[in-house]
Structures are given as structure tokens and as C-alpha cells.
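During the reporting period the student researcher (J.K.) took over the structure-prediction task from the postdoctoral fellow and processed the backlog of single-chain submissions. One of the processed entries is reproduced below for the supervisory committee.
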Amino acid sequence: MSGTDERVYPVSPRGVSDARFTVGLVLDISALLESQGYPRLSGRDFVNLQLALIRFLYGGGGAQ
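J.K. obtained the following C-alpha cells:
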């Protein structure tokens, strides 16, 4: 962390459907969480992780 209060997120999506946001991205984050000792995501938890990432990355209540 840099110690500044400058924010980078939320970002603007690249087009209507941002190609950077994929199911693979969410699966990678899910695997990272699991590797750190968190329970495996399934069902509704996976959907909620997707929604939380969308809000954080693109706004709408995530990183505001």
C-alpha cells in the first residue's frame, strides 16, 4: 500500500461487456480464497462473489 488516499477503483468498464471480467476471474479468486483457508464457494456464494466484484470493480456501491 502506498499510504495515499488516491483511489483507483471503481474503474470504467471496457465496452458494454468488459472482457476482463470472466467466470475464470471469479474462479481464480475463489481458488485463492480457498487456498487461504476459506471454505469452497458453491451455488449462491459464487453468485454473491461475482456481484461483490462487479460492485467493487465498476461501482454501484462497491468501492464508493
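The committee noted the following: The helical segments are 23-35, 44-58.
J.K. will present the remaining backlog at the next meeting.
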